[in-house]
Structure formats: C-alpha cells, structure tokens
Write a structure and sequence with these properties.
By secondary structure, the protein is an all-beta fold. The protein has two domains: 89 residues, no CATH class; 89 residues, Sandwich (Immunoglobulin-like). Helices cover 0% and strands 48% of the residues. The strands form five sheets. Strands 9-16-15-11-13 form a five-stranded mixed sheet, with no helix packed on it. A hairpin with a 3-residue loop joins β4 and β5. The chain is elongated and about 85 Å long. 8% of the residues are buried. About 4% of the residues have low confidence.
Length: 200
C-alpha cells in the first residue's frame, strides 16, 4: 500500500528554492500508515504460515523554509537509484501475525428454553466431518442429526419439564482432525427453565 503526500509549492529565487507555501501535510498533521491486506491461504497451509515480516520503505525530501534556505533530511542512511536520480529512504520492518479463522462454527452456542416441549434450530458449519455428542443420561433432549460433513441444519428437541427444578446439559460439537488440520470443539449449552422464557 502506498501513501502519497502532497508536495508543498515553492518558488525558486536567487539560486535556491525558497518561499515555501501550502506546507506539506506531514508538517502539521498526524500521519499514520495503515497496512490493509487480505491474506488467503489453502486450508492445508494454515499451520505452515503463522507470520511474516513486512518491510516498509519511506522516502524523504528536502524541506525548505521561507528565509532559511534548504534543510537537508536527517538520519537518512540508505539510497537507491531511480532513473538518473538517487532516492534516500529509511526502512522499518514489522512482524505480522496471521490469525487463521476456525474451521468449525455454530449459529448459537447457548439456548435458554421454556418448560414446554419444543424444538429449536441449530446451524453449523465445519471443514470436513463433524459429530455432536449428547450425554447418554440426558433422555429429555434429542438432536435430529448427530454427524455429518460440512454445513448442516439440525434441530435440538426437548421434552416438557413438569418439575419445578430447571435442567441443563452441554452438547459437544467436534470437528475431526484432518491431515492438515487439528481437532476443534464447541460446547453448546442447553438450559430448560421450570417456567416460561421470553422469546427473542
């Protein structure tokens, strides 16, 4: 990404540049370069590319005041040739960390339900095969589909709660480890109230 800063206008008089007007933006405002990129890697490379080094090269120019003549750039130690001109610059490197998105996701990870028998939808997506584990002793709750591949819509159904004690359980959604990816897990909390619950 390149940011071009407008050069101040100048007049040449008595053998030198002077009478600087319309000061350059950098002389009176904050300037903060922003590096904005979208990095796309194949899934089988997500564990290989964790970070990279980005090198910024900043060129400078002479600044000229109205009466004091030319002021040379300070602390410039690097140069390169651009055509017939020599360009002076400084360099700054930054370590950029790449955060890979998860390969498993759900539309909702917690449910608060009323005491009525009902069914609620859950949308999930996984890179590869997935499985939902339901605790064996939670007979009041069922899942319409407990395994699959990729994107899927399932329903979580609960029986009517007749006691005055709420009940809850945790479902575990697991994406199996692949050749180039690790196992991922999401916990889905389901609580059924002993009374009514306001709807969203």
């Amino acid at each position: 990404m390149f940011q071009k800063v407008k050069r101040a206008k100048q007049n040449r008089s008595i053998g030198k540049w002077q009478h600087l007007y319309e000061p350059a933006a950098l002389s009176h405002s904050a300037f903060s370069p922003k590096n904005s990129w979208v990095w796309k890697f194949p899934t089988n490379k997500r564990d290989q590319y964790k970070s990279f080094e980005s090198l910024f090269r900043i060129s400078t120019m002479n600044t000229i005041s109205r009466y004091s003549g030319s002021q040379s750039p300070k602390h410039i130690i690097n140069t390169f040739k651009k055509g017939n001109n020599t360009v002076e610059y400084v360099e700054q490197s930054f370590e950029i960390t790449l955060a890979s998105p998860p390969l498993l996701g759900v539309s909702k990870s917690n449910f608060l339900l009323s005491n009525e028998a009902q069914s609620v939808p859950l949308e999930l997506a996984a890179q590869g095969p997935w499985t939902i584990h339901v605790p064996a002793d939670q007979h009041w709750l069922r899942v319409s589909k407990v395994s699959g591949i990729g994107h899927s819509n399932v329903n979580i159904s609960v029986d009517r709660l007749t006691s005055d004690q709420e009940r809850s359980t945790a479902l575990t959604l697991v994406k199996s480890a692949g050749i180039n990816s690790k196992e991922e897990r999401i916990t889905i909390e389901v609580m059924q109230s002993a009374g009514t619950v306001p709807t969203d």
